[in-house]
Amino acid sequence: MESLDFGIIVTIVGMGTTFLTLIFLGFVIDVMKKLFPVERPSVEKKPAPLKQAAEKSS
Amino acid sequence: MLESAVLSMLTGIRNLTVPQVIMIAVGLVLIYLAAGKGFEPLLLLPIGFGAVLVNIPLAGLMDEHGVLRVFYNAGVANEIFPILIFIGIGAMIDFTPLLENPRILLLGAAGQFGIFLTLLVALALGFTKLEATTIGIIGAADGPTTIYFASKFAPHMLGAVSVAAYSYMSLVPLIQPPIMRLLTTQKEREIMMPAIKRTTSKRVKILFPIVVTLITSIIAPLGTPLIGMLMLGNFMRESGAVERLSNMAQNELCNIVTLLLGISIGATMQAEYFLRPQTLLIFALGLVAICLDTATGVVFGKIMCFATRGKVNPLIGAAGISAFPMSARVVQSVGMKANPRNHLLMHAAGANMGGQIGSVMAAAVLLSIITGLGLS
Question: Which residues of chain B neighbour A27 with C-beta distances below 8 Å?
Answer without folding.
Answer: 102
